[in-house]
Amino acid sequence: MTGQDLLLGERQDLIRRRLDLSGRVIAAELAQELGVSEDTIRRDLREMAASGLCRRVYGGALRVSPAAGPITERIAAGGERKAALAEAAAALIPPGSAVFLDAGSTNLAIARALSPASGLTVATNAPAIAAALLERGVATIQIGGLIDPRAGGAIGASAMRDAECFRPDVLVLGVCGIDREAGVTAESFEEAEYKRFLAAKSRALLVAVTNEKLSTAAPYSVVPLARVAHAVIEADAEEAEAAALAAAGIETVRAKQPSAHRDLPR
Amino acid sequence: MTGQDLLLGERQDLIRRRLDLSGRVIAAELAQELGVSEDTIRRDLREMAASGLCRRVYGGALRVSPAAGPITERIAAGGERKAALAEAAAALIPPGSAVFLDAGSTNLAIARALSPASGLTVATNAPAIAAALLERGVATIQIGGLIDPRAGGAIGASAMRDAECFRPDVLVLGVCGIDREAGVTAESFEEAEYKRFLAAKSRALLVAVTNEKLSTAAPYSVVPLARVAHAVIEADAEEAEAAALAAAGIETVRAKQPSAHRDLPR
DNA sequence: CGCATTGTCGCCCGATCATGCATGATCTGG
DNA sequence: CCAGATCATGCATGATCGGGCGACAATGCG
């Protein structure tokens, strides 16, 4: 039906997009839809699986990251380190300001570190963050829209419309990677677009970055480094990385060593 | 019945998520819910146990580390009673429908009882519910706006604007009280207005009501009883109350006894 | 211009896999 | 110790898989 010819690469791109979108593809369906034989699809899938772009299963393929939003997992991982990072980041936010907390597990930690006494108004597109803020008694504005399970928040057109009338003093950007050349980067096109949109409306940008995200670039650029005002990095981040950030004009702060006492209030 | 076909790997992912969430799964339940034979589930469980992903027991399987688990959180959040109520309510929602889950602790329990296999699209104005849905892998639309801390969700003008274009098949209304005369009632004016707005756009209304809300009226009326299609009440709700609901033309369903829920051996 | 090479793709076939059912063993609660 | 539920195993069946083969087009080379 839809059977126009696709260049070889296009087909795989399309499969990949389809995978990102729904988390699963079925070989037979793809074959019919793209007007090629099932064998060809299987070859594509095999190849993609070999390069780690998908997980092959009987009948089709799944997204690499376990079906559920990876968000859930990321929350569990690296609790203490992120808590330390979050505390340092929270301290950088001036009391009384209007803040946008982007989706992301690190930002969730920041939400948990915010104090209701600081008189903040916080907007977020991530339900987990909104729930945490609410629990802590922080004034919360929720950004609506269809939720992207990978990002763990709303990032579509309607989310932008919702966020339009909010001009935060501080935007706490969730980052997938930060790199001298590429700047702040994101995993998906839509996500990057959304972040860019937010950044354009914000007075100052703050990022909290775990070690593994330093000097790594995800596929899509959001903003150049120069646009970032503050960065929080881990206590044991490499000095060279810190210097690179500072050289770009970013005020860089190290978190405290997490090994210490302190548990976050439950 | 409930679900569409799942790719082989997806089923195991789903079981794993279910395990993480509640700490235990029951073979027979999974089989019915996922629309496969019990043998298949047992094979999955056996396989997962072999790779150390779960612990096999008679009747089902348990999480490997019985120590930590949101099971405690679940009990704290609503107790067994609400879980039973929620299960009955979830069973009333036709697979594939578009649902609006209003804010409220009972509705949060319902969110936790929804199966991702049922192909639902769920909108909600409560961040806690959105987060729970996301965790369970259900397609989620978040309604934005300023969050009212008492209601636990967005209920202002912008929330209405956000919800405007969504016309749910089923609206699961959070109720503060339900009474023959006053109908469904809410605690605050704004909340009532928001619920009324939602009700006007929905095909069918469903409410899940704990005992203490039966025959009590909060200050503000939302909709008359006649507008409610289904009501779920607790197993031990008074018969007179049930009769009153039924007399108003509401299809009334009793939840199962929470204690009657079979326990797995340790 | 002709010819060889390369790569994509469709088709076919034996192998493999997932699943449901039947059977007999095993477990559990009373 | 019994009745009923649950389990492991083997088998049948249908779908899917992977590799091999040949067709066909694009490209490179003489």
Notes on the structure:
The structure is a homodimer of 266-residue chains. Chain A has helices at residues 8-22, 27-34, 38-50, 70-76, 79-91, 105-113, 127-136, 157-163, 189-200, 239-247, and strands at residues 24-26, 55-57, 60-62, 98-101, 121-124, 139-142, 145-148, 153-154, 170-173, 177-179, 183-186, 204-209, 220-223, 230-233, 251-254. Chain A is built from ten helices and 15 strands. Chain A is globular, with a radius of gyration of 20 Å. The N and C termini of chain A lie far apart (55 Å). In chain A, a hairpin with a 2-residue loop joins β2 (55-57) and β3 (60-62). The first copy, chain A, has a seven-stranded parallel sheet, with helices on both faces. In chain A, strands 1-3-2 form a three-stranded antiparallel sheet. In chain A, strands 10-11-13 form a three-stranded antiparallel sheet. With 266 residues, chain A is of the alpha/beta class. In chain A, 39% of the residues lie in helices and 21% in strands. Chain A has two domains: 8-62, Arc Repressor Mutant, subunit A; 72-254, Rossmann fold, CATH 3.40.50.1360. At the A-B interface, α7, β6, β7 and α8 of A face α1, α7, β6, β7 and α8 of B. β6 (139-142) of chain A pairs antiparallel with β7 of chain B, so a sheet runs across the interface. Chains A, B: InterPro entries: Carb_Metab_HTH_regulators, DeoR-like_C, DeoR_HTH, NagB/RpiA_transferase-like, Tscrpt_reg_HTH_DeoR_CS, WH-like_DNA-bd_sf, WH_DNA-bd_sf. Chains A, B: This is DeoR/GlpR family DNA-binding transcription regulator. Chains A, B: Keywords: DNA-binding, Repressor, Transcription, Transcription regulation.
